[in-house]
Amino acid sequence: xxxxxxxxxxxxxxxxxxxxxxxxxxxxxxxxxxxxxxxxxxxxxxxxxxxxxxxxxxxxxxxxxxxxxxxxxxxxxxxxxxxxxxxxxxxxxxxxxxxxxxxxxxxxxxxxxxxxxxxxxxxxxxxxxxx
Length: 131
Known about the structure:
Helix content: 55-70%
Distance between the termini: 17 Å
Number of domains: 2
Number of strands: 0
Strand content: under 5%
Oligomer: single chain
Radius of gyration: 18 Å
Number of helices: 6
């Protein structure tokens, strides 16, 4: 969000570093789903980390193996996607009255309940879709 709002926008290396840090988290998300619901093998997940997150073989293998037993493996990206969808839906409901500050103040005012619950409190018309 900070990059979207122009923070350090003249420093392209800052944005590239942010994207590089996001790659392993995004691949974790994909591999977690693949490993647990699509029959993805640890070898296939290892290749995904090598090809998509530009990891060397040993750390890629460790990440792939972690995906077989760590239930929170995909949580960071899942939460990010859920929050981005909530922000889009809130913005669509607010139209011209939308304020990023008000969105964050409202979101944070609820404490830390699950995002699907916050959606019901923040949106007039929650479509039930979380990502």
